[in-house]
């Protein structure tokens, strides 16, 4: 019986999120997704600093917090921020997303699922505290970011 209320709660949250994403103006969608990606980038930098660039500065709690933040943002539904009209600059917000992003949704979904899986794995590995394992998973996570950038992000 406990599963039914949880299912109803999840479906209600999904309906609210779907309605909210439909109301996001293109300029706000661009602003929010840029903020999410910037925050993930900053956290990736913290992990890189403490595991690759300067492992003597490694702090398990900080690396774990950064990895969990990345996973949380990756799983937050960022895809809902790619609303119609956000494929080009809007309301003073610039975007570097290529039009192909909106035309190749199957490929976008595949890349997004891979990124989410690698980000979740990064958080899991970071919890273990093995710096070499974190470095390896950090590389895998970064590769999924790069695969989307290479395919769907305009160069500066």
TrEMBL record:
Gene3D superfamilies, alphabetized: Cytochrome c/b562
A molecular function (GO) term: heme binding
GO cellular component: periplasmic space
Keywords: Electron transport, Heme, Iron, Metal-binding, Signal, Transport
Post-translational modification as stated in the protein's UniProt record: Binds 1 heme group per subunit.
Keyword Zinc-finger: no
Stored InterPro entries: Cyt_c/b562, Cyt_c_II, Cyt_c_prime, Cyt_c_prime_subgr
Signal peptide limits: 1-22
Database matches in Pfam families: Cytochrom_C_2
Keyword Ion transport: no
Residue numbers binding heme c: 145, 148-149
GO BP terms: electron transport chain
Source species, domain of life: Bacteria
Name under which the protein is recorded: Cytochrome c556
Classification lineage: Bacteria, Pseudomonadati, Pseudomonadota, Betaproteobacteria, Rhodocyclales
